[in-house]
Design brief:
Helix content: over 70%
Number of strands: 0
Radius of gyration: 21 Å
Distance between the termini: 41 Å
Number of domains: 1
Number of helices: 5
Structural class: mainly alpha
Order of helices and strands: HHHHH
Largest sheet: none
């Protein structure tokens, strides 16, 4: 038996070159996470600029729409296997941020302080988590 005939099987044992080379983080996923941070920043600016409930409800609705657009974009990305778990978490966080923005918008429209507080806190938490995921992915 020739030794060279075993070379294709080497990767199955973990001795192949592909197992030792690091996988680059998907740049498009990082760009989507940067966009999510920008959406959160713009929403915070809208809230700070107005004390009227209607503009704040509208800003939360726009935030929700942008998060859902990002979620669709991220869900369609093909991500290398080492980053698939992180990719799934990004999709989940974007869905939850959109749900929080919907709750916040509803709270402003119907003057419900509990929804405003719960939605606002949840949205802040999810945007912070998305920012942390961006940092984690960029440093990988």
């Amino acid at each position: 038996m020739k030794v060279s005939s075993l070379l294709p099987l080497r990767s199955l044992w973990g001795g192949g070159e592909s197992s030792t080379s690091p996988v680059e983080p998907p740049q498009e996923l990082i760009a989507c996470l940067e966009t999510a941070s920008d959406v959160g920043r713009r929403f915070a600016e809208h809230v700070a600029a107005s004390s009227d409930h209607q503009p704040q409800a509208n800003a939360a609705s726009i935030c929700r729409w942008e998060m859902m657009q990002l979620r669709e974009r991220v869900a369609e990305l093909e991500v290398p296997r080492p980053h698939q778990t992180l990719h799934s978490e990004v999709v989940r966080r974007l869905e939850e941020a959109a749900a929080a923005a919907r709750l916040l918008s509803s709270g402003h429209r119907f003057h419900n302080l509990d929804r405003i507080c719960d939605g606002g806190q949840a949205l802040d938490d999810h945007i912070a988590a998305l920012s942390d995921l961006k940092d984690k992915l960029a440093s990988a």
